[in-house]
């Protein structure tokens, strides 16, 4: 639909203007860019590779063998982690999944409504509402989270699943992305045609606009899923019962205990390794049919 | 923007209906907490007698007392200066790398581009707490491969979790986590430049470096402004990384960053009024900085356009 992000088409081999660049069909490698990018990839993958290997080491091996040599203790580490406080680790994982999936789903719904309204209608106060919603991005989370905690305490909702879920439903960035996608994907004449046929505004939205917005909304969902999964501060402030902790907070408390007892290091490391898997797997799977570029609000047909 | 000129009357209420959930959530979880924080910042707890019994602790009007206390608080100022130093490392290095990688991805005949793009983006999917934890272990002499190598080479082994190197250690975590996302934003904007723009330059014999410096970078300036803006905000809000590193070292105080100080005052000391005043000051500083920056960026762009 939109042409905001047309792929720069490389001229077909042989038709390159000014063919002074060597034989047409042979693809030379640009050395400096390739090497730079590989170094960047190495830097980014190094800690991940380290945690994968370190999680296979037993307590002794962690301190005695060379870092990038696999150990023999993975099964043992795993059963230690399972045994830790009756498997509270998996409870944390489950909680994170619950917060992230439900929160991102609700966030996507709210963003799609707001984005659609802001993109397709012209009404009094539109820009003001958009700007006010966007200003939410600027609010440092601690500054919101502390009064949120105090207010939720008055409603007796702190230390509950609600206290982590509710404040994360409205995402200013989600509304922003959703508005861009709606503006690009839903043509005005299609909406107008729906009206001519006598369809209600709600019906036009659910039957016509929403299906067109789906690719963009997947992005909103992913963005918010990652944001909630990675969030540490809000649960850190809201929760005290570790049965409700998400994985980030759980690992933090594990590290706090483990720092004094190096025997717990292997537990922390194995826990960190397992915590990385779901999101990495999600991105590896999803990038086959979803483009990273969508995250920055680029719209393609 | 897509809008029709004429519309029936029934349509008028529809946008407000669609915006209702967002508006309610905004009121409850943004506007109300902010208002409450501001209200709290002008109040204080007055303790009479020994502070025992009901009525001994009363909330009273404090005026600007909490604000003067916050502005003269050396811990808060220290935190602000630390975060300033940290930001001066993180933002240029992260955006420099993001721009470099984006330009490299955009260059012709580059190999392994899809793989490296995904690999550099990968840290985005890793929670800040886990990132700090991974790097925290890599900074520990006992388990780190870097120290192993330094040891074998007989080189000095700096303590990365103390003093000056601590800033580098923390900055590295932020750079590692943030470069990929910013790279994607810049790269997307590079790809939206039509190919014809380069053709003339190429015919004139411009080198890829010249094209990058003279054409590509100026054309992606808006996205650089955007990433710069968001990086500054994220930097000011640093909280989880130093909080995670804290157990591994004694040199990260509980008030390392301003937000940690706010948290500490609110929940460590239980002085929500002082915390609210500090929070309000930080929020105002962020807003002023953001709008100042956006205005300056806008003015510059208008000047560029006018030329």
Descriptive account of the structure:
The complex is a heterodimer of chains A (301) and B (307). Chain A has 301 residues and is mainly alpha-helical. Chain A has a single domain, classed as MetI-like fold (Orthogonal Bundle), CATH 1.10.3720. Chain A is 65% helix and 0% strand. The longest helix of chain A has 33 residues. Chain B has 307 residues and is mainly alpha-helical. Chain B has one domain: MetI-like (MetI-like fold, Orthogonal Bundle). The two termini of chain B are 27 Å apart. The N terminus of chain B is likely disordered. In chain B, strands 1-2 form a two-stranded antiparallel ribbon. Chain B is globular. The chains are: A mainly alpha (301), B mainly alpha (307). The interface between A and B is large, with 119 and 115 residues.
* Largest interface, counted by CB within 8 Å of the partner chain's CB: A-B, 119 and 115 residues
Count of runs of 4 or more consecutive helical residues of chain B: 13
Instruction: Tell me the structural class of chain A.
Output: mainly alpha
CATH architecture grouping of chain A: Orthogonal Bundle
Uncertain spans of chain A = 1-26
Radius of gyration of chain A: 25 Å
Give the strand order of the largest sheet of chain B, numbering strands 1, 2, ... along the chain: 1-2
**CATH-level-2 architecture of chain B:** Orthogonal Bundle
DSSP strand content of chain B: under 5%
Total number of distinct structural domains of chain A: 1
Instruction: Kindly report the oligomeric state of this protein.
Output: heterodimer
Radius of gyration of chain B: 25 Å
Overall form of chain B: globular
Largest sheet of chain A: none
Q: Classify the fold: give the CATH topology of chain A.
A: MetI-like fold
CATH topology of chain B: MetI-like fold
Q: Kindly provide the name of the CATH class of chain B.
A: Mainly Alpha
Distance between the first and last residues' Cα of chain B = 27 Å
